[in-house]
């Protein structure tokens, strides 16, 4: 093992058997989670290039929103027209009131016949559920050249529909069924959302692969709620029948995902699809699909019966959520540690080698500040025998942690010319840093 030089006094604290050291990855957020967050941040600030041909068809302002960015994938509009009866388009936009991004869905070609139609969707604005994309507001605007209806929802960057994730022409040679644990996770989330919706006397009607967003690890949310309430305001309303249709749509969705084929629910394929589920998945899943898709003889199925049927799976999902929460709290703890150490390094940066303070150009080179400078070298500027820099992240993290705690352990600091040796504790160094930083703060307050 190489020896540290030219400061041999530091070697005892740095040269040690690396067995027992924490892996460096344990100090930082996992790379996969980091990449997910970075990708989401990039999408939050996505704007259209000035040369993008789409920009000429998008207004600079829409009501109280600006920086509109189209979110539709190629060909998405054609499919959307089949869902709501009108072609729709979706944009990310920034609200001028709170500076937050939202997703705005435009209903193209729809003409609002009555203001009461907007009130029909008012209940959705008050509904908050972890598996429903919240509706924020509905408004009409002429900014696109006509009186167009718009629905504003929460925006989840990086989300995708389960249609694009699981049903977009999979390669049949490498076809893999969705694991049953994932299917049950989706089912329990959707049943939870439907339970809340139906208990409020509402109807979902958007249980379709194109309207369910995958916003995280097996995390799904119903998207586009409230639209049917407005566009079909004048249609006859039978609450019990519509809520039963929600359950029928749920059954079709589960079967579609289990077979990973939109064609699985057609009349000619239905029996074969159910047989495939029977041979591939558990009896519980098979029974649930059959219950949801079977035409009722007397009483219509209801969401409470579905909750009873999947109660055991709800406990499993609860266990998964607690485990995932533990994992996220662990990652959060790492970032808390990093933030705490960053504040220490920032204070060191403010103090070390400050060119002028209170008209004294040598302020950072005298008194307690000189100790802080030597300590900075102790952390960051050590070298090996051959003069190459020591880049030991573990040493940096360990040293800063001891400084933050103000432990009584003493270290030996050496000047760059090797003429001065100073023994000092982390506790004393912490006091020196706090005192020097307080001087800078008081000077700033005095000038203000």
Automatic annotation (TrEMBL):
<dbReference type="GO" id="GO:0031251">
    <property type="term" value="C:PAN complex"/>
</dbReference>
<comment type="subunit">
    <text>Homodimer. Forms a heterotrimer with a catalytic subunit PAN2 to form the poly(A)-nuclease (PAN) deadenylation complex. Interacts (via PAM-2 motif) with poly(A)-binding protein (via PABC domain), conferring substrate specificity of the enzyme complex.</text>
</comment>
<dbReference type="GO" id="GO:0000289">
    <property type="term" value="P:nuclear-transcribed mRNA poly(A) tail shortening"/>
</dbReference>
<feature type="binding site">
    <location>
        <begin position="154"/>
        <end position="161"/>
    </location>
    <ligand>
        <name>ATP</name>
    </ligand>
</feature>
<dbReference type="GO" id="GO:0000932">
    <property type="term" value="C:P-body"/>
</dbReference>
<dbReference type="Pfam" id="PF18101">
    <property type="entry name" value="Pan3_CK"/>
</dbReference>
<keyword id="KW-0175">Coiled coil</keyword>
<protein>
    <recommendedName>
        <fullName>PAN2-PAN3 deadenylation complex subunit PAN3</fullName>
    </recommendedName>
</protein>
<dbReference type="GO" id="GO:0005524">
    <property type="term" value="F:ATP binding"/>
</dbReference>
<dbReference type="GO" id="GO:0008143">
    <property type="term" value="F:poly(A) binding"/>
</dbReference>
<dbReference type="Pfam" id="PF00069">
    <property type="entry name" value="Pkinase"/>
</dbReference>
<dbReference type="InterPro" id="IPR041332">
    <property type="entry name" value="Pan3_CK"/>
</dbReference>
<feature type="binding site">
    <location>
        <position position="105"/>
    </location>
    <ligand>
        <name>ATP</name>
    </ligand>
</feature>
<feature type="coiled-coil region">
    <location>
        <begin position="312"/>
        <end position="350"/>
    </location>
</feature>
<comment type="function">
    <text>Regulatory subunit of the poly(A)-nuclease (PAN) deadenylation complex, one of two cytoplasmic mRNA deadenylases involved in mRNA turnover. PAN specifically shortens poly(A) tails of RNA and the activity is stimulated by poly(A)-binding protein (PABP). PAN deadenylation is followed by rapid degradation of the shortened mRNA tails by the CCR4-NOT complex. Deadenylated mRNAs are then degraded by two alternative mechanisms, namely exosome-mediated 3'-5' exonucleolytic degradation, or deadenlyation-dependent mRNA decaping and subsequent 5'-3' exonucleolytic degradation by XRN1.</text>
</comment>
<comment type="similarity">
    <text>Belongs to the protein kinase superfamily. PAN3 family.</text>
</comment>
<dbReference type="InterPro" id="IPR030844">
    <property type="entry name" value="PAN3"/>
</dbReference>
<keyword id="KW-0067">ATP-binding</keyword>
<feature type="region of interest" description="Knob domain">
    <location>
        <begin position="351"/>
        <end position="448"/>
    </location>
</feature>
<dbReference type="GO" id="GO:0006397">
    <property type="term" value="P:mRNA processing"/>
</dbReference>
<dbReference type="InterPro" id="IPR000719">
    <property type="entry name" value="Prot_kinase_dom"/>
</dbReference>
<dbReference type="GO" id="GO:0004672">
    <property type="term" value="F:protein kinase activity"/>
</dbReference>
<keyword id="KW-0963">Cytoplasm</keyword>
<dbReference type="InterPro" id="IPR011009">
    <property type="entry name" value="Kinase-like_dom_sf"/>
</dbReference>
<keyword id="KW-0547">Nucleotide-binding</keyword>
<feature type="domain" description="Protein kinase">
    <location>
        <begin position="76"/>
        <end position="325"/>
    </location>
</feature>
<keyword id="KW-0507">mRNA processing</keyword>
<feature type="binding site">
    <location>
        <begin position="210"/>
        <end position="211"/>
    </location>
    <ligand>
        <name>ATP</name>
    </ligand>
</feature>
